[in-house]
Amino acid sequence: MPMEYKYIEFNEGWEFIQEGIRKLKRIVEGSPEPDFNSEERMTLYNTIYNMCTQRPPFDYSQRLYDKYGETFEEYITSAVLPSLREGQDEVIMLQVLVRSWEKHKVLEMWLSRFFHYLDRYFIPRRALRRLSDVGRNCFRDLVCRDLGANVRNAVLGLIHKEREGEEIDREMLKKVIDVFVEIGKGQMDVYIEDLEACLLKDTGEYYSRKASSWISEEYSYADYMVKAEECLRKERESASHYLPPSSEQKLVRTVQHELFEPLADVLVRQKVTAELAPLFQHVEDAATKQASSVGAGMPAQVLITDLVELHVKYTAYVNDCFRNYYHFHKALNEAFEVFCNKAVAGSSCAESLAAFCDDLLKKGGGEKLSGVQGIEETLEKAIKTLLPYISDKDHFAEFYRKRLARRLLFDRSANKDHEKSIITKMKQQCGGQFTSKMEGMVTDWTLARETQNSFEEYLHCNPNINPGMDLAVTVLTTGSWPSYESFNLNLPSEMRKSVEIFKGYYETKTKHRKLTWVYSLGSCHIIGKFEPKPIELVVSTYQAALLLLFNTADRLSYSEISCQLNLPENALVRILHSLSCSKYKILVKEPNTKIISPNDTFEFNSMFTDRMIRIKIPLPPVDHERKEVMKDVDKDRRYAIDAAIVRIMKSRKVFGHQELVIECVEQLRHMFKPDIKTIKKRIEDLIIRDYLERDKENQKVYRYVV
């Protein structure tokens, strides 16, 4: 007959296992106990194995797993904690902690071998913590958590003694810190939570007190830096002996912050502010008085030049005197960022920088430079230095684009290579999107010159086509250039013929583009046949069209001129004022007042004369460029915010309101600081336009509409 299998009862089996555990504890504690021989080890393992593989209800895997944890709890409670609570000094307590951890690791190693079957089969099936984790967590919960404050204070006390010049046992300190690292099994979470956070906080407080005492004792800046450097060197050297590399870097950053931040505030931030504030006030006063006594140029030029020089000066201080430390750079950047986003004399720094660039890039701009630097080098330094500090870079881009358009269209640019070079520098600094329209303008201008040459060749090859005047047309692409106000002007017959000829020529080149004439940007050279002498008049297209009306009539009323030209009242008043009420009175107005009214009549002034044979008659200035720029920028910002929101939602599909706003601000901050209220309005608009929809269950969550 087959032998009947005998099941191992739990109490019987556990009593045998406990006997082996008691022997292991005596070995760990250093008692005169012989080691386990191979037979004893196998018997223990087989007993646990059999108790785990018996058929239910004799499968004791879970109970053995629980007993495994209780074994560690009992050992730590009875053997480890009492020895750590004996009231000895801090150094002895740390030494006991290190020895206890070493014993714990030996105990854990042998027990995990005896209970290996649980680790291999039972624990994976039940998704329980591994045996090594159970043992280490017991040590952390019962030792590190219970006595954590005492251990931390002891560790920080030793480090503090070393900072004050005392000798300490670095090797022992490293072993204590390694206890926290090893409990996490290579993961630094336990160490960071239980020790590192307190270490960094204590270090910050220690060196904050040091910095305050040095400043209050009025050390010279050189002496302060020498002391700070010495402290930093010692911290690096000490930390390398007992801290993990990640903590060593954090500790050094903390020391740098506490020692250099106060000095950076005093030496850089406050001094830069002290120099910039009077500079801004000086420029403000000069602009208010319309004076240029503050320097060799207008306020914008003085402001930008002095800002660049001041930045170069303090950057050299930071690099050479303060070893290029981050905290001094940060203080310098913060000080300049505040002032570069302040308005001075009614203009933002973005507008002043654009005006500075315009002055140098116009013809004769090089004469305004007082130093030996060239135009390109000066502009590159100004843009590279100041543009990163301007938060609303789109304002600068739009102001610059407006002025670039005038330089190109009115042939005021001194050097086209300089224009391209500066745009390239801005592209490298701010990206292709920032300069795409500027590059398109320069390309357009080059193509327009080629189109004009082709038109002249067309006229030369067709002698029967005679426009009756010299005509130069600049053909531009709508999307790249700023928008300009233009009216549907009724051209005089002389001009109309030339325009029709160019239209005929252009249709031979392309039939897929429509020409829209912007007469507000045109200029004309006409000969005024005055009785004293003929004079060449340089006027706008509108002024020329009005003057040509007097070829067929000696006297015209306001209403007759308005009817023939089809101009709005405000534009017509400006033109008539420039020709009859300003310095050059080409027309005689009745009555002879400075105000244009609908009852006025105008007559060609045949007796007009001037010492020059060519004069330019400007239109009265209309200072609405800033308003136009702000209007265009606001429109572009709406498009940019819409695009950012759609881009985010397209990738996220479902997103909360607050998260969407934060990510939208993050994506756009390199160009401008979007207003939160504007973002909310754009979200509502996109919901109306069916790009987004609110979640039915949570109104603060949006869904992307495919």
Mean pLDDT: 84
What is the percent of helical residues?
Answer: 55-70%
| Biggest beta sheet summary | 3 strands, mixed
* End-to-end Cα distance: 77 Å
Which residues sit in consecutive blocks of at least 5 with pLDDT less than 50?
A: 290-297
| Strand segment count | 9
State the shape.
elongated
Structural class: mainly alpha
- What value does the Rg take, in angstroms? 42 Å
Instruction: Tell me the number of helical segments per DSSP (H or I, 4 or more residues long).
Output: 25
The order of strands across the largest sheet is 1-2-6
- Strand content is 5-15%
Essential attributes:
single chain, 706 residues, mainly alpha, 3-stranded mixed sheet, 3-stranded antiparallel sheet, 25 helices, 5% strand, elongated
Description:
This protein has 25 helices and 9 strands. It has 706 residues and is mainly alpha-helical. A 3-stranded mixed β-sheet has the order 1-2-6. The protein has a 3-stranded antiparallel β-sheet with strand order 3-5-4. The chain has a 3-stranded antiparallel β-sheet with strand order 7-9-8. Helix 11 runs antiparallel to helix 12 and helix 16 runs parallel beside helix 18.
